[in-house]
Backbone:
């Protein structure tokens, strides 16, 4: 999953970026509202974590512009001004949630997971496809209750397919979820990750099926490549 983090306090921004990356999120980080607004115009994100007090454009103005363009990505606001008036203003402009500073990173990540579930219209933290289960709280996979250990890239690819289980997922959608702005998106790399995942799913009743010219689909049954 790909996250946009906009936070002007650089030590906090760098620490949050590293924390999110360790949790298998792909993160783009900017330090002002103008940069956040530009990326929201040009890139696709699953979630935005946005500080209210940003230079150039405030977080509230970034949200206002995003919603005026009919952007639907969930937005979680961060602020040191945890007043009722501040929360109401941000929520009325289109923010989905609000967290005051200082905060617990565990609570922040729990709120992020809740927003991601809501955006997928999937209230349960568990996704199931055949014998493959994904727990979005721990962000772990299991097959018949046995943990499926995956490197970060493979984890991100399978997560993207799992959240769209039964639906076609294009290579661009996978690349958007997998690669941050600082990384080069490689179609060949995605094919390598798909190949490795197929090997790891070979003994299960779940397969990644290639749809020529369209992308991939995760489904119960045998793979047809």
Residues:
């Amino acid at each position: 999953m790909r996250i946009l983090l906009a936070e002007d306090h650089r030590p906090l921004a760098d620490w949050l970026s590293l924390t999110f990356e360790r949790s298998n999120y792909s993160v783009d980080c900017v330090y002002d509202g103008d940069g956040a607004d530009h990326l929201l115009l040009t890139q696709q994100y699953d979630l935005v974590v946005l500080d209210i007090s940003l230079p150039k454009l405030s977080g509230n103005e970034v949200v206002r512009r995003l919603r005026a363009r009919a952007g639907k990505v969930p937005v979680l606001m961060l602020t040191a001004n945890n007043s009722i008036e501040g929360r109401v203003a941000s929520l009325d402009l289109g923010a989905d949630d609000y967290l005051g500073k200082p905060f617990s990173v565990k609570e922040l990540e729990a709120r992020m997971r809740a927003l991601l579930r809501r955006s997928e219209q999937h209230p349960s933290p568990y996704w199931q496809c055949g014998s493959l289960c994904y727990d979005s709280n721990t962000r772990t996979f299991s097959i018949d209750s046995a943990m499926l250990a995956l490197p970060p890239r493979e984890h991100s690819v399978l997560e993207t397919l799992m959240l769209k289980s039964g639906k076609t997922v294009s290579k661009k959608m996978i690349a958007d979820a997998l690669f941050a702005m600082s990384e080069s998106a490689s179609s060949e790399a995605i094919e390598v990750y798909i190949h490795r995942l197929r090997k790891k799913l070979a003994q299960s009743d779940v397969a990644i099926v290639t749809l020529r010219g369209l992308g991939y689909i995760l489904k119960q049954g045998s793979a047809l490549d």
